[in-house]
Amino acid sequence: MAHIIHADLDAFYATVEQLDNPELRGKPVLVGGRPESRGVVATASYEARPFGVHSAMPMRTAVRLCPQGIIVRPRFNRYREMSRLVMDVFRDFTEIVEPLSLDEAYLDISEAVNEAEGRWPLGVALELKRRVKEETGLTVSVGVSASKYVSKIASDLQKPDGLVVVPSGDETGFLAPLAVGKLWGIGPKTAERLNAEGVETIGDLASKPTDWFARVFGQRAESVRLRAAGQDNEPVHTERVTKSVSSETTFPDDIGDTEELHRVLDELASGVSGSLEGKGLQGRTVTVKMRLADFTTFSRQSTLPRPSNDVDPIRELAWRLLSAELTAGRTFRLLGVGVSNFSDGEEERQLPLTLEGDFSAVRREWWLPETTPLP
Ligand code: DCP
Ligand code: MG
Question: In the chain, pLDDT over 90 holds for what percent of residues?
Answer without folding.
Answer: 74
